[in-house]
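Q: Here's a chain of 401 amino acids. Please give me its 3D structure as tokens.
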Amino acid sequence: MTLFDPWSADFIAHPYEAYAELRATSPVHFHEPTGQWLVSRYEDVSALLRDRRLGRTYTHRFSHEEFGQTPPDPAHEPFHTLNSNGLLDLEAPDHTRIRRLVAKAFTPRMVEGLRPTVARLADELVSGLLEEGGGDLIAAVAEPLPVAVIAEMLGVPTADRGLLRPWSAAITGMFELNPSAEVAKRAVDASVEFSDYLRALIRERRAAPGNDLISALIAAQEDGDALSEQEMVSTCVLLLNAGHEATVNTTGNGWWALFRNPDQLALLRSDVDAHLATAVEELMRYDTPLQMFERWVLEDIEVAGVSIPRGSELALLFGSANRDGARFTDPDRLDVTRADNPHITFGAGIHFCLGAPLARLELTESYGALLRRAPHLTLLREPDWQPGYVIRGLTELLVTT
């Protein structure tokens, strides 16, 4: 499938034509350059996310050699230790145990309790944009909001909050396809620095617990079981990385979509309260921030009539699934009133995003503040896309108020 080229700037900017071709002609397709099976239809992607014959990892059942894979570079060990102890890359029983303990700390009540803080932060950031008469919407609003929120949750001192975004950006670079040696080194360095910082913070909270997530993670226990220090560190990093990257790119990609669809922007502005909730869901569907989610095949399977052997890697194309006309009416049309919208932006199955309620809260407050307080927000010029495909977002979004 020559149209699918995740290293091409043109493809990253406009992937949906290639996705439509994949769904129509080759919904389960082996892509030689990445060594992955591309799965593009909603029905298949949704089912595979729940299929326990697949895994985010295979090391809970096989050695690298048994699975036909090359062991990771020992120089990358700090990154892999950090990543492999987080919920995103764990499988049962470890995933079950850690998610249950984290859920005791990261509760719906905690998230809802953040609403006034998130609303205040969003309002302050929008005020800054208005005072400047515009600027880069991503740098001014989209990026600082989730960083400030997670910093508040973790109890990170204000003076240290500037450290979080660079660490997150460096670590998530490893989630792209075939990252370079330079990208890997930055990720390893950030993994060490961020882990060391969090360990110090955990020590402080053990000595003097506070009303923050780290203190709650320390206190979370069940039948005498508790999170290890590494599990707490990995959980905190995952909350920042997953929540931050998704929220930033949903904000940037979503506003770019609204500017390209002025009728929908006008409709949303005409009654923000009536349409905001469905608009947030639609913007997550329409231009999905995480385009691909990978799974390892732990047992031989068949998908849409195609046999896939154990040891293979699947690339579940979220961006394609969310534009599948077999599930969504008129899928390439942005509709901020779309009610039937079971998008899979947050995943599904045991790895459904634990931070989804927080992401929805941040997006609702961010969009709401901009729509209400900057009703004349206007795009200055067409934006460029960042070079990454898996985590897909804009470099900037220049606006005037």
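Q: Can you summarize the key feature?
A: The chain has a mean pLDDT of 95.
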